[in-house]
């Protein structure tokens, strides 16, 4: 039932036609006015009996009451003096008042209509002239909480044209406003970190640029990229990586209270805007402090992670004249810091810009080199110290540029790793080395192991085992004549994943080696878990043999440790007789280096195999 009676005791809402008119659904009253009538209630059909009429009206009252109470928006029926005659449950619910606390009271007596009362001088004349008013108010719940409200008022007039009732339709806009606020927030802020997003950062940059031009101020932009974050994401999963990004964002915020805007641009890229700065020295101090803060270990779900970052700093107007150039220069400086090993910052300079352009050109040329087969494979022999004969060779890629000539590996391998081109290059070397090793055997030459360097990029792709299996099948090379090398530092990037991959490769019969051993921080427990066959001593220790007692001691220890674990030992970078003699005395298994042979092409290595040369 509709709650409330009129002053005369007549039930409000008798007749469905009246109630539908009140709701403004049927448009009945409008049609009546068009016919020159203003009555609100439909006339009784002549043919119906009193009993039938009573049944019809009772049914209409029940239906009207159901609609009234089931409505999702608040409905309040008022008399001409703005006394509440009926209130539905929806209005009671979001106003916080029980129906009994509202019915019979004037609007002016209730706190839930304070804003409506403030606007009453505007509402009243419009309502009297147009029979309707609507607008947004900020009203008060019983708890005192303010909430946005959409109010629609409609006038009902009697036969004489006087106001008999006022019907209020009330909507609580709180949920809509929260949704709109969230949309606005997501438009300008990163959901994961709460930092400004790229769009807001761009707006802040433009605003800062305008202020700088008007007030002769200087801007500084720090472009930040986390080092090797993709590896972390691939090895530990996106959920943990998201936690890292969240914690990094908090560290940025705490470490840079003087920053005007800190933003997450995308993925693991952040930017910091300084609307003004004191000096280059002050910026350098800020960058140094930030790197130290970011470099502190993070504990996330039992994992202790050390995050480093590469930063690029550009200045306006010192190095850039507009915002687009400022952003581009900071990115170039960041890439230079990353190229130098990461965990550092670089200021942009025009010489750096020239270097960046050269690298971009080199990248394009390298892509072309892969497509046009400008790459070749050279081989550096490995000698067995027990026999003095060659028993293996390391496959090394070379780039024969049509204009530049031979491009040193140091000039393009790092670039290939940064750009992902190391993947196709590594596959090319693997296929060519296996094909060539099998070809030598078909020519009747003594079989030797060919070793191929792996990259972390190849391991991340998760296709290495299937690729090796395919290449062995296609080339016809027996797996024991293929050796795959991975540097010690790369082994520790994703231990569990690499252990699994190495176990699968070991099951294929492929030989495995740890390259540059002694330069990383691997423990003996890790070394035992990797299914490796060879340990290659880094040439930095071999270079010190005969000159540095510490290098000799380390070399001895590595050989003894490897042999105790039943691993073979290869010494690389052997260039002097004293080094060779020392390694032979320590019972090192194999050596390679310029003393034995420089890297040579496949034809030259075939000639060495045919001559069955003894190096010792």
UniProtKB/TrEMBL annotation:
Gene3D superfamilies: 3.30.70.270, EAL domain, PAS domain. Residues 60-130 form the PAS domain. It comes from Pseudomonas lundensis. This is cyclic-guanylate-specific phosphodiesterase. The chain crosses the membrane at residues 6-28. It is an enzyme of class 3 (hydrolase). Its EC number is 3.1.4.52. GO terms for molecular function: cyclic-guanylate-specific phosphodiesterase activity. Pfam families: EAL, GGDEF, PAS_9. Residues 131-185 form the PAC domain. Residues 217-350 form the GGDEF domain. It comes from the Bacteria. Residues 359-613 form the EAL domain. InterPro entries: Biofilm_reg_signaling (IPR052155), EAL_dom (IPR001633), EAL_sf (IPR035919), GGDEF_dom (IPR000160), Nucleotide_cyclase (IPR029787), PAC (IPR001610), PAS (IPR000014), PAS-assoc_C (IPR000700). Keywords: c-di-GMP, Membrane, Transmembrane, Transmembrane helix.
């Amino acid at each position: 039932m509709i709650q409330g009676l009129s002053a005369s005791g007549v039930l409000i809402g008798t007749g469905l036609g009246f109630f539908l008119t009140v709701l403004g659904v049927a448009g009945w009253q409008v049609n009546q006015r068009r016919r020159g009538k203003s009555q609100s209630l439909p006339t009784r059909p002549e043919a119906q009996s009193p009993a039938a009429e009573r049944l019809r009206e009772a049914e209409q009252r029940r239906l009207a009451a159901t609609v009234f109470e089931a409505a999702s928006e608040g409905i309040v029926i008022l008399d001409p003096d703005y006394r509440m005659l009926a209130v539905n449950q929806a209005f009671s619910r979001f106003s916080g008042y029980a129906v009994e606390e509202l019915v019979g009271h004037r609007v002016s007596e209730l706190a839930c209509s304070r804003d409506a009362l403030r606007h009453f001088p505007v509402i009243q004349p419009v309502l009297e002239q147009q029979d309707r008013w609507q607008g947004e108010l900020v009203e008060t719940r019983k708890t005192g909480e303010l909430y946005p409200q959409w109010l629609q008022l409609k006038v009902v007039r009697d036969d004489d044209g006087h106001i008999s009732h006022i019907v209020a339709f009330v909507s609580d806009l709180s949920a809509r406003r929260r949704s709109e606020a969230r949309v606005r927030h997501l438009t300008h802020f990163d959901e994961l970190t709460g930092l400004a997003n790229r769009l807001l950062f761009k707006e802040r940059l433009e605003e800062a640029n305008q202020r700088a031009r008007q007030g002769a101020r200087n801007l500084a932009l720090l472009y930040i990229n986390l080092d090797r974050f993709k590896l972390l994401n691939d090895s530990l999963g996106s959920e943990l990586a998201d936690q890292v990004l969240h914690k990094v964002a908090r560290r940025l915020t705490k470490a840079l209270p003087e920053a005007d805007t800190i933003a997450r641009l995308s993925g693991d890229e952040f930017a910091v805007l300084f609307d003004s700065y004191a000096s280059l020295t002050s910026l350098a101090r800020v960058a140094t402090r930030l790197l130290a803060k970011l470099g502190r270990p993070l504990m996330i779900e039992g994992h202790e992670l050390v995050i480093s970052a590469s930063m690029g700093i550009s200045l306006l107007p010192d190095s850039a004249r507009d915002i687009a150039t400022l952003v581009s220069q900071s990115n170039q400086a960041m890439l230079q810091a990353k190229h130098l090993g990461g965990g550092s910052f670089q200021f942009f300079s025009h010489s750096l810009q020239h270097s960046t352009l050269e690298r971009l050109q080199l990248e394009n040329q390298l892509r072309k080199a892969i497509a046009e087969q400008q790459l070749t494979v050279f081989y550096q022999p490995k000698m067995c110290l027990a026999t003095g004969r060659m028993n293996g060779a390391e496959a090394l890629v070379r780039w024969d540029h049509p204009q530049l000539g031979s491009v040193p590996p140091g000039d393009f391998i790092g670039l290939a790793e940064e750009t992902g081109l190391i993947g196709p290059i590594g596959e090319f070397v693997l296929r060519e080395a296996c094909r060539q090793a099998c070809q030598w055997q078909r020519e009747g030459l003594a079989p030797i192991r060919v070793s191929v360097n792996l990259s972390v990029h190849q391991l991340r792709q998760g296709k290495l085992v299937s690729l090796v299996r395919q290449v062995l099948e296609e080339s016809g090379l027996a797996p024991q004549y293929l050796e795959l090398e991975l540097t010690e530092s790369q082994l520790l990037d994703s231990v569990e994943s690499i252990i699994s991959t190495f176990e699968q490769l070991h099951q294929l019969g492929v030989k495995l080696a740890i390259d540059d051993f002694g330069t990383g921080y691997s423990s003996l427990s890790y070394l035992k878990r990797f299914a490796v066959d060879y340990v290659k001593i880094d040439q930095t220790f071999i270079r010190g043999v005969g000159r540095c007692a510490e290098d000799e001691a380390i070399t001895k220890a590595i050989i003894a440790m490897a042999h105790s674990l039943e691993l073979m030992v290869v010494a690389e970078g052997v260039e002097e007789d004293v080094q060779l003699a020392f390694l032979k005395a320590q019972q090192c298994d194999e050596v390679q280096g310029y003393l034995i042979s420089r890297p040579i092409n496949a034809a030259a290595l075939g000639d060495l195999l045919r001559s069955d040369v003894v190096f010792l």
